[in-house]
Amino acid sequence: MAVDQGPLARRWDALDVDRRTAALARAREAFRLPPAGDRRAWSHVDDVTARAILDMADADRCTLWPRLRLSDYARYWRDGNRTAYEQPAGELRRRTSAAVLAAALDGQPYLDEAADGLLTLCEQTTWCWAAHERFAATRGQVVPDPDQPFLDLGAAETVAVLAWADLVLAPGLDARVPGLRERMRREARRRVVAPFLGSREWHWLGLDGHLHNWNPWIHNHLLATALFLVDDASDRARVVDLVVDGLDRYLASLPGDGGCDEGYAYWWNGPARLAEALDLLDRATGGLMAPWRWGAMPELARYPHRMALGGGWYVNVGDGPARPSADQAWHVLHRWGRATGDRQAVAHAASHRTPETPAVTVGPGLGRAVVGLTDPQWAAQPPTAPPLPASSWLPEVELLVSRERGGSAHGLCVAVKGGHNDENHNHNDVGSYLVALDGAPVLVDLGQPTYTAISFTARRYEQWVTRSQWHNLPVVNGWEQSAGAGFRARAMVVDLAPDGDSARIDLAGAYAPDAGCRSWQRQVRLDRRTATVVVTDDWCIDAPADVRLHHVVAGEPLAHRAGHLAVRALSGGVLVLSWDPQAGAGRLERHAVDDPLLRDVWGEAVHRLIVAPPNVTTGSFTLTASATSGGQHDRR
């Protein structure tokens, strides 16, 4: 069912059919791309960016093309491994994209390289990733049926390469490899367009009310496919009409505070994909859509700078790395901020415009690169300081970020999360918090592990990083928090003031009744006057009243004794955690990190401090975090 009178549908329907049809037919012209291979015509691309693209393509030509093997695809069902297939599939898309951009800038020999990659993509048995393939799995098979393609993120990412390549290289491909563009269209129709038009049962449509990043991510690529690869006007219009319907549904699901329950990393493939799709449709209609102030769009552009800790670190909730790749399509946010007039959003994007580095890279995708190359304001943008606001409170997703000094990563920053335990990419983390020093988290949320076959199944919480005992949370009478929408925060209240911010929350509702947790009041306060973070827990629980307070620590422990733990943060400073010495020293455990995604963020190991206060049914515990010089701390 379509969203009733969503802003996108209203604006789209306000255009008469003839006007819409004409606009879609002229969509390619909206980009005004120079002829491929004419370097002088592409002179608006700065030398640093052009050289980086050409160097990448040159390096690629010295290596063999990635091989996609059935044995790697089948590993998903054999041993749960997804990356053995998804990594070379992604590398094939990246290499093809790099060749497309190089051919646009410099013509031959990159045009042949691009054609080789495009045909290789067309010849794949499937574009669907094994973790998403349902048709073959239903038959008890691991070999996908080419006659029954499954439309997932893998298919959408692949068809997007074909679509944007067609936009950029069409005349050159027709002259050099006649017939390739027809093959690209045939594969796009068979694998993507026909399945999309033929079924409303794709889960990512969100017709059941469950919306997540797949919706805008896939719809964005479907829109590019319709505009650049679908020649039949009727089919093109049908695809775009359904894309409008789907994007409206996603837009209606987003909180008005601009929050993203999937976290900062997935913001780039959720709200950012929505913005790109709206921008593409706006371009195609000559600016008639004007989408930038619809619903939560202005607030959504503020999410990245609200989550920034500094130095490349971000507040991460759910499946998100605390230190994500800096190779993002920052021009998307820059354009968005310009359109809404949000100087802080523009400044945050511009803070990543490093001098003497490429303005655009291939990593985030070919479509994003092409759009970035046509944005002269981004290319000319000098670097700026990130805004780093002192306080950011998102009441609908229940997330507070509070910093010691607004505009500076120096000092303490704390983030507190409420919400519930059935959020997209959920970890059981209601009431958890993180504390960062000079940008780098010390009391941490570990974030995203490498995805495997159990990552999105009933076995999800067998992964150690998704469990509440690996967040900064209590274990009550042996019970961790439970998964499910019913396990949620109660009455989260936030107070913002110049001298400090605080959040109060009752965690009891996140635990199963058998835990006997009648009340668990947690207050987290950043005090700017004393430069401390103070976390106070007050509880009322049933006997036997066994409480274990868990604290997940990144960095190097320097000194540990009763009521005291000093940690050398990954930023170099020292954070001291202190509590009532009568509660003892607690137990400090070292946990080796063998997951490559986690190790890239946290290093070879993390630690967990477990403090067990006296066994009382009504109790209280206070932890204070403060920065200090590290000279007096020795290793013990």
Structural features, described:
The protein has 636 residues and is an alpha+beta fold. Helices cover 36% and strands 19% of the residues. The protein contains 20 helices and 21 strands. The strands form five sheets. An eight-stranded antiparallel beta sheet has the order 11-12-13-14-21-18-17-16, with no helix packed on it. The protein has a five-stranded antiparallel beta sheet with strand order 3-4-5-7-8, with no helix packed on it. It has a four-stranded antiparallel beta sheet with strand order 9-15-20-19, with no helix packed on it.
Tell me the layout of helices and strands.
Blueprint: H1 7-14, H2 17-25, H3 47-61, H4 70-78, H5 83-106, H6 110-123, H7 135-138, H8 153-176, H9 180-198, H10 214-229, H11 233-253, H12 263-267, H13 271-284, H14 297-300, H15 303-307, E1 308-310, E2 313-314, H16 330-340, H17 343-350, H18 366-373, H19 376-379, E3 391-394, E4 399-403, E5 412-417, E6 420-421, E7 433-437, E8 440-443, E9 474-476, E10 484-488, E11 490-497, E12 500-506, E13 517-527, E14 532-541, E15 547-553, E16 556-561, E17 564-568, E18 574-578, E19 587-592, H20 596-602, E20 605-611, E21 618-628
Antiparallel strand pairs: 1-2, 3-4, 4-5, 5-7, 6-10, 7-8, 9-15, 11-12, 12-13, 13-14, 14-21, 15-20, 16-17, 17-18, 18-21, 19-20
Helix pairs in contact: 1-11, 3-5, 4-5, 5-6, 5-8, 6-8, 6-9, 8-9, 8-10, 9-10, 10-11, 10-13, 16-17
